[in-house]
Automatic annotation (TrEMBL):
Ranges that cross the membrane: none
Organism, as annotated: Streptomyces thermoalcalitolerans
Keywords: Heme, Iron, Metal-binding, Monooxygenase, Oxidoreductase
Name recorded for this polypeptide: Cytochrome P450
Coiled coil: none
Listed Pfam families: p450 (PF00067)
Length: 402
């Protein structure tokens, strides 16, 4: 990455301090970089050096889908990252390239397709009804995050994983610690969760069950994957599921601060699936950027020359606001069609949790809009506390009344 060997002038490196943007606003640094160019360069608080940042939809998809951009190669680098503790992890699905990546993803694929997640729809609806019964029984005011939006996605992931009901509360505690605790405490929670999954999967090596622990057990039994790989994948899926709590917190923040949107969804329930897609497009699910990729051979993106060894970040949020793809991208438009958003990413690393997220959020929208008709914020919008210093963005609590 020596600049002298390049004949083209390079754009300046913009330092991105990764602070906590307000509410559901796009980080102002990212907004500036989106204006500045289709391809810019950034420095981030973790790692070393700089990385390319790609923000337009076509370019983002090209980088995410092209095998000349490697995730495994990130492990050999101190590549820039949004925070020092967000270091790449060896042997996890996010930092593998095909064919190992494909082998791991194959083992869990059937449980996470749109068809696969239907298996848990009715049991999930029952669990949600119980949570909403509790909310209504306790009466207003309430913290919607604590009562419903936080626990529900976690329960659904447990159901899909095959974690027995008695262990689900403990599972949620581990997942929150993995995601929010400083390095050592987070690492310890990850190890404790891993030890739990190792036992669960080991007990299901010959299972014919459809839950994910059984699928992983079968794959280990057939020697398609190792127990270690299975455990890492289980931990990643369980903690990935927590993302839905944060993003549905943001969704309800938007619906409660713009009551005309919630009203429309009450009046026109048939548009709810489309509305969920639009909110998935619009929301800034994560702070800053996800893991980068490393360029394996010299190539060009949108005319900009990248050299083998360069580090490249894509911003799916920026792509979801590309004005060439989404007219008036900063507005929430439930009639938007088509809506080819990339909230779940693109290419081989595309999030496996999309169908599950859709199931969980659609159930939440149905239950909360239909069963709690007068639902509204109990505090002014600017007093809703949002998480600080976290990679997933969302309200810490959502004080409501009805
Ligand atoms: C609102 C909810 C969610 C959003 C916005 C989201 C978004 C994403 C994105 C953008 C990626 C990265 C794609 C890339 O690296 O290019 C990803 C990866 C991943 N997500 Fe999600 N996700 C969500 C929910 C979930 C859920 C519910 C699960 C678990 C069931 C999950 C598990 C994962 C895993 C395991 C990966 C790594 C995939 C790989 O590298 O092959 N996510 N997600």
């Amino acid at each position: 990455m020596t600049e002298e060997t390049l004949t083209e002038p390079l754009p300046p490196v913009r330092h991105w301090p990764v602070l906590d943007p307000a509410g559901v606003d796009v980080d102002p640094v990212l907004a500036g970089l989106m204006e500045e160019g289709p391809v810019t360069r950034v420095g981030l608080p973790g790692g070393e050096g700089w990385a390319w940042l790609v923000t337009r939809m076509d370019d983002v998809r090209r980088v995410a889908e092209d095998s000349r951009f490697s995730r495994a190669a990130v492990l050999e680098r101190q590549a820039v990252r949004p925070a020092p503790h967000l270091a790449p992890a060896h042997d996890t699905v996010g930092f593998l390239d095909p064919p190992d990546h494909t082998r791991l993803r194959r083992s869990i694929a059937p449980a996470l397709t749109a068809h696969g997640v239907e298996r848990v729809r009715e049991s999930s609806r029952r669990m949600l009804d119980e949570l909403v019964d509790g909310l209504l029984g306790d009466g207003p005011p309430a913290d919607l995050t604590r009562a419903v939006l936080g626990p529900f996605p976690s329960l659904v992931v447990c159901e899909l994983m095959g974690v027995p009901p008695a262990d689900r509360q403990g599972m949620r505690t581990w997942a929150r610690r993995v995601l929010t605790s400083p390095h050592d405490a987070g690492e310890q929670a990850r190890e404790e969760m891993g030890a739990y999954f190792a036992e669960l999967i080991d007990a299901r090596l010959e299972s014919t069950g459809e839950d994910i622990a059984s699928l992983l057990g079968t794959a280990v039994g057939c020697r398609e994957i190792t127990l270690r790989e299975a455990v890492d994948l289980a931990v990643l899926l369980q903690t990935g599921g927590e993302a839905v709590g944060d993003s549905s917190g943001q969704m309800f923040y938007v619906l409660l601060t713009r009551p005309e949107l919630a009203e429309r969804l009450r009046r026109e329930p048939e548009i709810r699936p489309r509305a969920v897609e639009e909110l998935l497009r619009y929301l800034p699910h994560r702070n800053a950027l996800g893991p980068p990729r490393v360029v394996l051979e010299d190539l060009r993106i949108n005319g900009v020359r990248m050299r083998a060894g360069d580090v490249v970040h894509v911003s799916y949020l920026a792509a979801n606001r590309d004005p060439d793809v989404f007219p008036d991208p900063g507005s929430v438009d439930f009639s938007r069609s088509p809506n080819p958003h990339v909230a779940f990413g693109s290419g081989p690393h595309r999030c496996p949790g999309g169908p599950l997220t859709r199931l969980v959020t659609e159930l939440l929208v149905d239950a909360l809009l239909d069963r709690v008709p007068g639902l509204k914020l109990a505090v002014p919008a600017d007093q809703v506390p949002f998480g600080k210093g976290t990679s997933l963005r969302g309200p810490e609590s959502l004080p409501v009344t009805w």
